[in-house]
Design brief:
By secondary structure, this protein is mostly helical. The chain has two domains: about 270 residues, MetI-like (MetI-like fold); about 220 residues, Orthogonal Bundle (MetI-like fold). Helices cover about 70% and strands about 0% of the residues. The strands form three sheets. It has a two-stranded antiparallel ribbon. The protein is globular.
C-alpha cells in the first residue's frame, strides 16, 4: 500500500513539475482576468458607450448635474479629512511604539487594533444615539444644566458629515498605524545614533531623519485609508447622507441597465484611485530612501522609556483606545436597550434583543453564510497567495512582476466598485453565476479578490523569512520541488499563512459593499446584509436588534484578530503595504 502511494505521489509530482506548474501562471492570470479585469472592462464600456458608439456624453451629464457635483465634492472632503485625521492619530503612536519599550506595550498594541473588528456602519448606529441633537451627550449636558433644553448642539454637523469622518477615522487608523510601524521597524538605527552623537534633539531627529525615511510607507498607508474612506458605503447609508458618491452608486444599482450614471460614478472613483496610486508609485518608489545597510543592521532601535514617559504614553494610548472604542461600546449598550430615546442611558435594559435574534428566521443562516463565504474565500486566497508569492520571491520566471501587479490591483479597486462591476458583468442567463439568482460564487470570489493583496503580502513575508538555503539543500539531496515545498517550505511559512487566512477571514466576514450589493435574496444574506435588513425595519427596536447582531460579529472577530496578531506578530503591518 505504501509503495502504491509512493508511486502515485511520484506520478503526481512529475505531472506537477512538467504540466501543472508551467500552466499555473496562466491559470492565475485567467482567473484574475475574468473576476478582476473583465468587470472593469464592462464598467468602462457602460460609461463610455452611447447610442452613437464611443462617447463622453454621460460624463458631460455627470458634470452638469448639481447633485452629482455635490456628491463628488462631499466624498472627496470626507476622504481627505478622514486621511488627515488618521495621520494625526497614527503617526505619534507608531513613533512611540517603535521607539520605546515600556510595561504593557504589547497589551496596548493589541487594544489599538480594536476598531478594526467592527465596520463603521454598525458603529454609526451607536454614534447617532450618542451624538444626535437629542442623544445621550446632549441629554447629559442638559441634565447637568450645561446646555439649554431648547438649544441642542449638532455634534454630527452638516447632516452627519463630521460623524462620518470621525467614524471612518476611528475605524481606519489601525491600518495606517500598522503600515507606519512596519516601516519604522525597518529603519537603520545607526542614523538616529549618528544624529544623537552630533547633539540633535529628539524632535529634530524625528523631523530630519525618521519622517523623510518613512514617507513611502506613510503615503502607502494613507492611500489605503483614502480609498477605504472614499468608497465606504455603509456609514453614509446609516446616517442617511445621500449626497456622496457611494450612496449615489448604490441607489443606481436597481436601474443600471437604463441609467448609465452609476457606471460613470464608478469609473470616476476608479480613475481617481488609479491616478493616486500611479502618482505615488512614480513620485515615491519603495527605494526612494532605502539605505545601503537596510536589513543588515544589528542595533536595537528601541530604548527603555523612563517612568514619567511610559506613564504619559499609557495615558495617551488609553485616551485613544477609549475614544476609538466609543462606537463599539455604544453598540454593546444599545444591544441591551429598550426605549432609549431622549435620555442619557436606556430607560429599560433587556436581553430581548438577543432572544429576538435567536428566534429570527435569518439569524443562524446569515451567520452560517458569512462563515462559509469567508472561510472559502480565505482558502482560495491561500492557494492564490502562496502561488503568487512564490513566483515573486522564489521563481526567476518572467511572470513574477505581472502576477505581483495583478495581485496588488485590488488595492486601487474599492469593494464598492468591484461589487458594482460583478452585478453588471455577470447579469447573465446562468443561474449559479448571476448574483440576482445565486450570489454565492461571486460573494466568495469578491471577498477573495478584495483581500488577495493581504494574503500575498503575508505569504511573501513568510518566504522572505524562510531561508532559501534549506530549499537548495533539499533539492541537492534529490528531493522533487513539490516534496521540498511540502516538507521544508510549507512548514516554515505555515504561521504566516494561518495568520493571513485569519486576517482575510476577519475582513471578509463583515464586508459591507459586496454584501449589500450582491446578496439580493434572503436565503444568501451574510451578516452585514442582515444588519442592513434589520436597521431598515419599521420598528423602534430595529437599531437595538442590529446592534445585538453587531455584538455577535464583534465576538467572532475579536477571537480571529487576536489569533492573527499572535501568529503574524510584527509582520502584521507588512500585510497593509502597497
Amino acid at each position: 500500500m505504501t509503495d502504491k502511494l509512493h508511486t502515485h505521489f511520484k506520478i503526481f509530482s512529475i505531472l506537477w513539475r512538467k504540466i501543472l506548474l508551467p500552466l499555473l501562471p496562466y491559470g492565475i492570470i485567467g482567473y484574475l482576468g475574468i473576476f478582476l479585469i473583465y468587470p472593469v472592462w464592462v464598467m468602462l464600456k457602460g460609461a463610455f458607450s452611447s447610442a452613437n458608439g464611443f462617447s463622453f456624453e454621460y460624463f458631460t451629464i455627470l458634470i452638469s448635474s448639481p447633485l452629482v457635483r455635490e456628491a463628488c465634492l462631499n466624498s472627496l472632503i470626507i476622504a481627505l479629512a478622514t486621511t488627515i485625521l488618521t495621520l494625526i492619530i497614527s503617526l505619534p503612536i507608531a513613533h512611540i511604539m517603535t521607539r520605546y519599550t515600556f510595561p504593557g506595550k504589547e497589551i496596548l498594541n493589541t487594544l489599538l487594533l480594536i476598531p478594526m473588528i467592527m465596520p463603521p456602519f454598525v458603529g454609526a448606529i451607536g454614534i447617532q444615539q450618542f451624538f444626535s441633537k437629542y442623544g445621550s451627550l446632549n441629554c447629559l449636558l442638559m441634565e447637568l444644566e450645561l446646555l439649554p433644553h431648547n438649544m441642542p448642539i449638532d455634534w454630527l454637523g452638516s447632516g452627519g458629515l463630521w460623524g462620518i469622518i470621525l467614524l471612518q477615522a476611528l475605524h481606519l487608523y489601525p491600518i495606517l498605524y500598522l503600515n507606519l510601524t512596519a516601516t519604522m521597524a525597518n529603519l537603520d538605527p545607526s542614523f538616529r545614533e549618528a544624529a544623537q552623537n552630533m547633539g540633535a534633539s529628539g524632535w529634530k531627529i524625528f523631523y530630519g531623519i525618521t519622517l523623510p525615511l518613512i514617507i513611502p510607507g506613510l503615503f502607502g498607508g494613507a492611500f489605503i485609508v483614502f480609498i477605504g474612506s472614499l468608497a465606504d458605503l455603509g456609514t453614509p447609508l446609516i446616517f442617511n447622507y445621500t449626497r456622496c458618491i457611494p450612496v449615489q452608486i448604490f441607489d443606481g444599482i436597481s436601474d443600471m441597465n437604463t441609467n448609465p450614471i452609476g457606471f460613470t460614478l464608478v469609473i470616476f472613483i476608479l480613475f481617481l484611485t488609479s491616478t493616486l496610486f500611479i502618482t505615488s508609485r512614480i513620485l515615491l518608489p519603495h527605494n526612494l530612501y532605502e539605505t545601503s545597510s537596510r536589513g543588515s543592521h544589528t542595533g536595537n532601535f528601541e530604548i527603555p522609556a523612563k517612568k514619567s514617559q511610559y506613564i504619559k504614553f499609557h495615558i495617551i494610548f488609553i485616551l485613544i483606545i477609549l475614544t476609538a472604542s466609543i462606537p463599539n461600546i455604544l453598540v454593546f449598550i444599545q444591544s441591551f436597550s429598550k426605549e432609549w430615546f431622549m435620555s442619557t442611558l436606556p430607560a429599560h435594559w433587556t436581553t430581548e434583543n438577543y432572544i429576538f435574534l435567536g428566534k429570527y428566521k435569518l439569524t443562524l443562516s446569515c451567520i452560517r453564510n458569512s462563515v462559509f463565504y469567508s472561510s472559502l474565500s480565505g482558502i482560495l486566497d491561500i492557494i492564490l497567495g502562496i502561488s503568487i508569492a512564490w513566483y515573486i520571491s522564489r521563481s526567476k520566471s518572467k511572470w513574477g512582476i505581472l502576477l505581483d501587479a495583478l495581485a496588488m490591483m485590488p488595492l486601487i479597486l474599492p469593494g464598492l466598485v468591484l461589487a458594482f462591476g460583478y452585478m453588471s458583468a455577470f447579469d447573465l442567463n446562468i443561474s449559479w453565476l448571476n448574483p440576482r439568482n445565486n450570489p454565492t460564487l461571486l460573494l466568495i470570489i469578491s471577498y477573495s479578490v478584495r483581500r488577495l493583496p493581504y494574503m500575498v503580502r503575508a505569504a511573501y513575508a513568510g518566504f522572505q523569512q524562510a531561508s532559501i538555503s534549506l530549499q537548495e539543500a533539499s533539492t541537492n539531496l534529490g528531493a522533487t520541488p513539490l516534496r521540498t515545498f511540502r516538507k521544508i517550505t510549507l512548514p516554515l511559512i505555515s504561521g504566516h499563512l494561518i495568520g493571513g487566512f485569519i486576517l482575510t477571514f476577519c475582513f471578509a466576514i463583515l464586508e459591507v459593499s459586496a454584501s449589500l450589493i450582491l446578496a439580493t435574496r434572503e436565503y444568501y444574506y451574510p451578516i452585514t446584509k442582515l444588519m442592513w435588513d434589520l436597521i431598515s425595519r419599521i420598528d423602534p427596536q430595529a437599531p437595538a436588534y442590529t446592534c445585538a447582531m453587531g455584538v455577535i460579529g464583534m465576538i467572532l472577530l475579536v477571537c480571529s484578530l487576536w489569533i492573527a496578531s499572535k501568529l503574524l506578530g510584527k509582520k502584521l503591518g507588512q500585510v497593509f503595504r502597497i
